[in-house]
Design goal:
Layout lengths: L5 H13 L6 E5 L6 E5 L1 H7 L1 H6 L6 E3 L2 E6 L4 H13 L6 H5 L9 H24 L3 H14 L1 H6 L1 H8 L6 H14 L2 H4 L9 H8 L8 H14 L13 H11 L13 H8 L8 H11 L29 H12 L15 E8 H4 L3 H8 L5 E7 L5 E6 L15 E4 L10 E4 L15 E2 L4 E3 L12 E3 L2 E11 L3
Parallel strand pairs: 1-4
Antiparallel strand pairs: 1-2, 3-4, 5-13, 6-7, 6-13, 7-8, 8-9, 10-11, 11-12
């Protein structure tokens, strides 16, 4: 077998990055007083970036003295420096450059750390957009995962802008649709009241309105949709009393895909007459007749196929489609309580935060997405919905999942929440002393990827039989952060 000299190769490539004296590309980055020139080698750029492979192979590239002159005014020098280092070395660090700018004998104070973190957050989205533009798929995935896992507070502070910006890119679906979208579902007015709302593209807004879980009154959704539709080009900005037949037709065309998603029959009679009926000119005839029958007659009833009310997000676990807050509170008490006190139903003096890492129906049901999204993330909660029975089972791993597996994880447990949400037939089963609790692909007794349960190392049996096979309908993995940590 031929020897590998990866370390020396890495050192040589790093030297090319830091001492590019034989460069054949000059990249002008940024604009005005912020412009910087970076020197690089076309062979490395083309090998590492599909974008540069196409751009630098063009016969139209500009050359001066056999050096390619390339311009990227839309990327800042600070962002490009980090990306260029990644292209050359495969290394990527958000804070390293900021720390290296300090004197060697200077200690980092708490204020320094805060300033560096703020500086990094200022360029997070720019880094993600630049990595996508340069077709650096691996870096895009890393940045998206980093933001979702570690920058929840920053996302919360900039929720509407991140949602609006990221939704324009197919590569960022997990960030905007699932992560930001699910946070906005808890506080839709953050989006509706933002300066970004009226410029949202129709497919993005449509996906958001399709949700059954939105923490807002239905009439507010209707009013905001009317506002959005009237602001599209060309604007319809005159009073509704002055609407022409063409105005109603144009507004109806803009909202035709949204109207079937509105729960009109959950709107109050007062709001119907004052806020919906004036716009009945944009509604389909059959819907107008159904609304008239329901709101304008004494014994009217909604049609049998009408949409059910939206569920306020406060009644569900943030980000979960499997368990609700009451169930999570119980699981939380198991996590923070002692082994001999595991039946208490309270929050004790300590809470946990739960951050969704993976949903099978969204990210994939196999082992590969689990390893990609959940390894080395610290303590995690797994909840599983069994197909055909509605039974919810799962487990808690107090350690990080790893490819090695075989952890004894003494505080781990598995459980069954029964087949409904009535708190009947709930079973908690903690790991027995000095027994292996988790493998690299599940709990020792509960191998959900294989669809198998076998009573072995945990104290109690959580399914009807000690050996049982099942099919997963969906499952979720949450990173668990105990607030005392």
């Amino acid at each position: 077998m031929a020897p590998l000299f990866a370390n020396s190769l890495f050192q040589d490539l790093t030297q090319l990055f830091t001492e590019a004296d034989d460069y054949n590309v000059k990249i002008e980055v940024g604009e005005g007083s912020e412009k910087e020139i970076f020197k690089a080698h076309s062979v490395i750029l083309r090998a590492r970036s599909p974008y540069f492979k196409a751009a630098l192979s063009s016969t139209w590239v500009r050359k001066v003295d056999d050096v390619i002159i390339f311009s990227k005014p839309n990327i800042s020098p600070k962002v490009f420096r980090k990306i260029l280092k990644y292209i050359y070395t495969g290394e990527f660090s958000l804070m390293e450059d900021d720390i290296q700018d300090m004197d060697e004998d200077e200690l980092l104070t708490e204020e320094d750390n805060s300033l560096i973190e703020d500086d990094v957050q200022d360029i997070l989205l720019d880094l993600l957009l630049a990595a996508d533009e340069l077709a650096l798929v691996e870096l895009v995935k890393y940045m998206e995962e980093y933001i979702i896992t570690y920058e929840r507070d920053w996302v919360q502070e900039n929720l509407a802008s991140i949602f609006a910006t990221a939704s324009k890119y197919e590569s960022f679906t997990r960030l905007w649709k699932h992560f930001c979208g699910e946070m906005l579902a808890q506080q839709p007015n953050t989006l509706f009241n933002s300066s970004y709302f009226l410029s949202l593209e129709k497919p993005t807004l449509l996906e958001f309105i399709e949700r059954d879980y939105l923490n807002i009154e239905e009439i507010e959704i209707w009013e905001n949709l009317i506002k959005w539709a009237r602001e599209q080009t060309p604007k319809i900005d005159h009073n509704i009393n002055q609407f022409t037949q063409n105005d109603f037709k144009e507004l109806g065309n803009r909202l035709d895909d949204f109207i079937p998603l509105i729960r009109f029959f959950n709107i109050s009679k007062e709001d119907y007459f004052s806020k919906v009926r004036p716009y009945e000119g944009i509604l389909p005839d059959d819907l107008k007749n159904e609304l008239k029958n329901f709101f304008e007659s004494d014994n009217g009833s909604p049609p049998k196929d009408h949409l059910p009310p939206r569920v306020p997000v406060s009644q569900t676990v943030p980000d979960s489609v499997i368990v609700n807050n009451k169930q999570l509170t119980l699981i939380e008490s198991w996590i923070v309580s002692s082994v001999n006190d595991d039946t208490r139903f309270n929050l004790l003096n300590e809470d946990c935060d739960f951050y969704l890492l993976l949903r099978g129906s969204r990210d994939g049901m196999g082992l590969k997405p689990f390893h990609s999204l959940c390894l080395y993330k610290g303590p995690t909660l797994v909840v599983i919905k069994i197909k055909g029975t509605n039974q919810v089972i799962g487990g808690y791993n107090p350690d990080s999942w790893s490819k090695i597996g075989g952890s004894k994880a003494k505080d781990s447990f598995i459980f069954s929440l029964g087949k409904d949400k009535s708190f009947n037939n709930i079973i908690l089963s903690r790991i027995e002393y000095n027994k292996v609790a988790v493998s690299n692909s599940g709990f020792e007794d509960l191998r959900w990827f294989e669809g198998k349960y076998h009573k072995s190392n945990f104290e109690r049996q959580i399914m009807e039989n000690s050996d049982e096979e099942f099919v997963i309908e969906d499952y979720e993995v949450f990173r668990v952060v105990r607030c005392c940590e």
